[in-house]
């Protein structure tokens, strides 16, 4: 059991890139949004409330209101959103971030 925990920890340290699971954003917007999500998760790794607040505020300032954000380690979703304004990305291995505009 300890070996599995060690291997998992090693994987999470290696997984310092983002994995875009779903998006319909334009490439420029997607790249900016992924950077914002990565910065937020790195800045607040143990406080998802601050993380989502940071992401929402950054997206609102950069791309106009109203953006919504959910972050966590195990969730599913079904949301109504504007076309070309949704992103579902995994950051730091297992933290999922969903942002959308509606």
UniProtKB/TrEMBL annotation:
Protein name: Dynein light chain
Entry keyword annotation includes Cytoplasm: yes
Stored InterPro entries: DLC_sf, Dynein_light_chain_typ-1/2
Family, as annotated: Belongs to the dynein light chain family.
UniProt-listed GO biological process terms: microtubule-based process
Gene Ontology CC annotations of this record: axoneme; dynein complex; microtubule
CDD domains reported for this sequence: DLC-like_DNAL4 (cd21453)
Function (record text): Force generating protein of respiratory cilia. Produces force towards the minus ends of microtubules. Dynein has ATPase activity.
């Amino acid at each position: 059991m300890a070996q599995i925990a060690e291997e998992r920890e090693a994987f999470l340290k290696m997984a310092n890139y983002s994995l875009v699971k779903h998006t319909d954003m334009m490439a420029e917007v997607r790249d900016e949004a992924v950077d914002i999500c990565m910065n937020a998760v790195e800045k607040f790794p143990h406080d998802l409330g601050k993380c989502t607040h940071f992401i929402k505020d950054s997206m609102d300032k950069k791309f106009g209101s109203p953006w919504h954000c959910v972050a966590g380690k195990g969730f599913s979703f079904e949301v109504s959103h504007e076309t070309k304004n949704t992103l579902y990305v995994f950051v730091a291995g297992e933290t999922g971030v969903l942002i959308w505009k509606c």
